Fold:
Amino acid sequence: MMMRMSSSSPGPARPRVLSGIQPTADSFHLGNYLGALRHWVSMQFDHDAFYCIVDMHAITVDYDPQILRERTLGSTAQLIAMGVDPRQCTLFVQSHVPEHAQLAWVMGCLTGFGEAARMTQFKDKTAKGGQDRATVGLFTYPVLQAADILLYQADRVPVGEDQRQHLELTRDLVGRFNHRFGETFTLPEPHIIKDTAKISDLQEPTAKMSKSASSNAGIVDLLDEPKTSGKKIRSAVTDSGREVYFDEVEKPGISNLLTIYSALSGRTVEDVAATYDGRGYGDLKKDLAQVVEDFITPFRARTIELLEDRAELDAILREGAARARSVASETLADVYERIGFVPATPSESSR
Ligand code: TRP
Structure:
C-alpha cells in the first residue's frame, strides 16, 4: 500500500476523490460552478483530491486544435481562480499522464462491445448524426473515464446524475478485473452531486443552464464582463404575480434566482426569500445582479492574471502531472504484471 501524504492532515489517510471536466468551452458558466465545481473546491480540504482536465475526452467529437489548447489552459486557470488550490489537491491535464491511455486499452479489452453500446450518453450523442458518423473514441469514452478513476484508486467520484451509468460501468469493470486477476482496484462510489443547486437557464427556467441552450442570454459565463452578467440577471424571465417565494412549479424563474442567490451568499433560500417579502421581483433581481458581479469580478481578474503568466501555469501543471504520474504509474505497473505482460527491463546503459 502506498502511503498517502497530506500536508494539512497527518494521521489516517483521507478518502481519495477523483473527478474530471472537459475543456470544451471558453468559459465555465454559473451552472458549472454552482452545480459541480464548487464541490471540487470544498472536497479538496477533507479528501486526497485528484482533479483532471480531460483533454483526451474532448477530442472524441469535432474540435479545433488551437481552441482545445486555449481551453485546456483556460480551464486550468479558471479552476484555480475558483479556489481549486494546487497545494491542496492534484490538478493535472489528462494527456500529460500517458497511463490513462494505457490503462484504457486494458479496460477496453475487458469491456463488452454490447455493454459499451448500451451507454445512454453515447446513444444520445449519436442520435442526431447516426452511429456511423461517430468515432470509435466516442464509443470507448466511458472506458477511458473508467481508467481515469481506477488509476488513482479513487474512493469517491463526484459527478452529475448524467454520469451515473459511466460510474456503474467502472464499478462493473472493477469487479471483473479483481475477480479475474486478484484484488487490484478500489471500488469507487459515485458521489452524485444532488441538485441542491440545480441552476436553470435565465430565459428558459424550466431547462438546465447549459451551453447547448438556444440563446446566450440565459447563461451567465463566468468570464463575461461582470456588467454583462449583471444585466443578464436583471433581464431574467420571471413569473406571473409579484410575490417572492420558492416554488419550482409555480415560479420556476424566481426559484432559480433564489437558488443562485442562496448558493452564492451561503444564506438559505428561505432566508433570502424572506428579505424580499412584499418588495417584488425588481429588488431581488437588482440585488442578485450585484451579488453575481461581486463574485465574478475577482474570479475574472484572477483568471486573466493566471493566463498572463504562462510559465507559472506550466509549472503548476508540470507539478500536478508529476504527482498524478507517481500514483498512476504504480497502478499501471501492478496491472501489467497481473495481466501477464512481461516487464520491460531498463536498458543496459541506465542500469
Ligand atoms: N465524463 C465526465 C463528464 O462529462 C468527465 C469525466 C471524464 C470524468 N473522466 C472522468 C468525471 C472521471 C469523473 C471521473 O462530466
Summary: The chain has a mean pLDDT of 94. The CA atoms of residues 100 and 148 lie 6 Å apart. DSSP finds 14 helices and five strands in the chain. The first helix runs from residue 30 to 43.
